[in-house]
Amino acid sequence: MSIENTQKAYDKWSEQYDTNVNKTRDLEAMALRQILADQSFDSILEIGCGTGKNSQWLITRTKKLIGADLSAEMLAKAKEKLSGREATFIQADITQDWNFTSDKFDLITFSLVLEHIENLDFIFREVSQKLSGSGKVYLGELHPFKQYSGSKARFETEEGQTIVPCYIHNVSDFTESASKYGLKIEEVREFFDEDDRTKVPRILALVFGKG
């Protein structure tokens, strides 16, 4: 699976990403807001900012927001939404060295990103280098239980269905990879459709801190 295919898919998806029915997008946005409610940060790095769906809320919780995304078309939407705000948006491939910023951050967020990344160790290594001493990491991902049942990032166009390349990561994959780089799990939460806990959870949310 190539990162170029993921980029092309999200460039195409940007045309309808904010308007199509998407339970995963909406529930992850709710998860982020619930988990980070009543917290503020001097600086936030938002990985996979997309069209700015979470950026609009994160900017109210920080003095400085940098959003990074692989898709130029997604970033264009985010820039429109936050025009005039203290936010910077950068096109970046996070599977390469994170030289797109030299800063350290109090919070680094990932929203529906890491299912598209094969090598978690590289990501957590880069995170550990960009995180401040008391910084936190928030991950909101499609739950692996959903992936086991065949759920994937996908969308429809007039040309047919597009499925975005993805990988399955178990909960332990996240925690073990993070621990290699001094990040300790602080919170694990699962979010369900209609809050029905008798069904498979849709979103896995994790918070890590520097140990």
UniProtKB/TrEMBL annotation:
InterPro entries: Methyltransf_11, SAM-dependent_MTases_sf. Residues 45-138 form the Methyltransferase type domain. SUPFAM superfamilies: S-adenosyl-L-methionine-dependent methyltransferases. Keywords: Methyltransferase, Transferase. The keyword Lyase does not apply. GO terms for molecular function: S-adenosylmethionine-dependent methyltransferase activity. This is Class I SAM-dependent methyltransferase. Coiled coil: none annotated. One of its GO terms (biological process) is methylation. The keyword Transferase applies. It comes from the Bacteria. It comes from Dyadobacter fanqingshengii.
